[in-house]
């Protein structure tokens, strides 16, 4: 069985064990605390609990309900244990910058819990697609009706992201089995393309150019790929520096791909004809850039996740400018997007997680603590893209999708 299925099986076994153990007692012992640790660490690092903002029992129970399905007795006792050992705290508190923009959030809870829903994208038809990385799922949401449908992907795919071609066909990137593929919307069948190189293990994030060519990154393989959907031809190139870990990818106004480096202080410009790579070094040995955004005038903005900064690279002059994020060095900005004369990004290491708007005209920032289900501030935006009416984001930990819209505040 695939890695994902074994994870889900282990989670089911631990859940059953935890339920069985609790049935004989109403007080959590050291042994039962160990079971709690095993149950939680089957999906994420146990340090996520230690580093969390902490919650009351009610909020812990709400958070658990968005991750796994437990019987009421088990959910009550595990939430009591967590509330006693990790109560509310401010060790990951964010710094909020006020301004005159007001945000509105609309949330949708995906059907399958524990799937790690991520990377939603909205097509011109209004439909939102997402992938459930841990659940091996491609999902479809109609935001007008709230109707959702989930498609099980080929075994072992472990999808990292989804992109749409010009026909609004959803393409997934198989992060665990070295594949890229798409769902035929008429037959609801998958077509899968395998990487031509055994070292190309982990397709990551992709984007289509105007000619229908699919460009994508392969993070740990240290490669950038190009796929022609007409004939299935795949070309791969390796980055100049080892362990650069190409992550995000965007196109400028000429269709030239730009790539961010999550393992090194660099950006990569890709020649769209030859696939020759131009490496741009960024200041700071601790700099690493998860994702980037490109403005209509082809300024390349990036999140400096390693140093808690927003950066801008001017391809015409080579000038690099960086600004501190509101919450500073350890805020770990992650996702980024251009929308309406502003750059938007999140501070993923803070609780509540924050969404930040950088006004391009006056170079000032405004930020907001991101609301979540029932006051539970445990999410993680790993990717954001502009949709029909606003930003389309997600909260991976709580398996939610969201749309963010904004209005100018009334100062009267």
Automatic annotation (TrEMBL):
Give the superkingdom in one word: Bacteria
Is Lyase a UniProt keyword of this protein? yes
Q: What is this protein called?
A: Virginiamycin B lyase
Extent of the signal sequence: 1-29
Keyword list, A-Z: Lyase, Signal
Q: Which InterPro entries match?
A: Cyt_c-like_dom_sf, Vgb, WD40/YVTN_repeat-like_dom_sf
Query: What GO molecular function annotations does the UniProt record carry, in alphabetical order?
Result: lyase activity
Q: Which organism is it from?
A: Shewanella japonica
The keyword Isomerase is annotated on this UniProt entry: no
